[in-house]
Amino acid sequence: MSEALSALQQQIEKVLSEQSGGEVKVKELRPLGGGACQDNYRVELSFAQGALKGDRRMVLRSDARASLPGSLGRRQEFEVVCAAASAGVKTAQARWLTQSLVREGAWAYFLDWVDGEAIGRRVVRNPELSDAREKLPEALAQVLARIHSVTPENAPQLLKLGASHVYPEGGNPSAFMVRELERQLDAMPEPHPAIELALAWLEENAPSPVPLTLTHGDFRTGNFMVRPEGLQAVLDWEFAHFGDPMEDLGWLCVRDWRFGQNALPVGGFARREALYQAYEKATGKPVDPKRVHYWEVAGNVRWAAGSVYQGERYLSGQETDLELVAIARRAVEMEYEALRLIEQGV
What is the tally of structural domains in the chain? Predict the structure, then answer.
């Protein structure tokens, strides 16, 4: 174990012993891959007493040195996860919010471990998950119904903590999104005319405002933990905000989250009609395909900009993961898809 991990192990034992009221030992600690925005660690723990007495596997989730525009800090994300869990969302339980555990000033918290498969290409292809894929539209619609039941009125603590975008009275989430993307575009080191063209379309075709609900913000294949028997948990809430609920449906249909299964536009595992019908059944509210299409175009534009920023996190020297550079090379794919959707509709 490196000196840094050894020091972190001692810190975890100290903090969790204080939090849990009994001795806690770290049996194993190692960084987790796949977290493009945050620092994640797998932690094998042994609790001497209390409700968690015995051996437990958990995830330590901490602020990274640099993050993507619009992402939450771990302090805000912790509150969102707790609000979602209170609404009955299938998600890992969050515990023990703390500061300066992994790095000075950085917020962190622990998540209960959930077994399953989350790697996108495996979720959409592995034969042992074929039955689970058939169940996903209904299971995810039920999850979305619970997420979208959280509103500024029944969860005002999220607004107070800055855990969600705050719109002016009567404001439109799509207008806010366009402004944010324009700001990101202005800060990019090179021009992106395709993004500019798509942003002009998004501004001209903005849907009318709707009552705001909590939206996951990154609701897609790769952020679902799946086992052969079905969905186990929804993960990664760092882009959660109050917005148009159709945004989550549109984001799930973004081409990049199909992992090569392009004939199945919903996350690489289902057709749009299956998702829409399941969502309408779960919520009792109609799905507007035109509004979902708008947010699918927006999702491709947003991920194109996000991919560029992932590369900048590496090029700036703030992060050292070469995967970030590989992600940046894919921005043109999303630019092309956004323009294709605008021209062809689907």
Answer: 2
In this structure, the number of other CB atoms found within 10 A of the CB of residue 27 comes to 12
Tokens 């989730």 appear where? 61
Residue 96 lies in a domain: yes
User: Is the domain of 151 the same as that of 88?
Assistant: no
Mark whether 67 and 163 lie in a shared domain. Answer: no
Domain match, 318 and 197 both: yes
Q: From CA 299, how far away is CA 168, in angstroms rounded? A: 23
If one counts every other C-beta atom within 10 angstroms of the C-beta of residue 20, the result is: 19
Residue 22 lies in a domain: no
Q: What is the DSSP string of 173-199?
A: HHHHHHHHHHHHHHHSSS--HHHHHHH
Supply the range of the domain harboring residue 106. Answer: 28-112
Residues 182 and 272 both lie in one domain: yes
Residue 331's alpha-carbon distances to 192, 306, 308, in angstroms, are 10, 8, 6
- The whole-number pLDDT of residue 7 equals 87
Q: Please tell me the predicted confidence (pLDDT) of residue 69.
A: 60
Q: What six digits make up the tokens of 339?
A: 């323009």
Answer whether 75's CB lies under 8 Å from 107's CB. yes
Please tell me the distance from the alpha carbon of residue 332 to that of residue 5, in angstroms, as a whole number: 38
E strand or H helix at 79: helix 74-86
DSSP state of 279: H
Helix (H, G, I), strand (E, B) or coil at 208: coil
Cβ contacts of 145 within 8 Å, gap of 6 or more: 279, 282, 283
Mean pLDDT by 10 residues, the chain (346 residues): 82 89 90 70 90 91 73 89 95 93 90 95 96 97 97 86 52 81 81 88 91 93 96 94 94 94 96 97 95 95 81 59 66 88 86
* Final residue of a structural domain among 71, 88, 112: 112
- Looking up residue 107, the CATH number of its domain turns out to be 3.30.200.20
Task: Looking at the structure, tell me whether residues 185 and 293 fall in a common domain.
Answer: yes
Q: How far is CA 94 from CA 20, 21, 267, 289, 343, in A?
A: 14, 18, 26, 34, 43
Q: Could you say which DSSP state residue 264 is in?
A: S
Among candidate residues 77, 112, 147, the one where a domain is terminated = 112
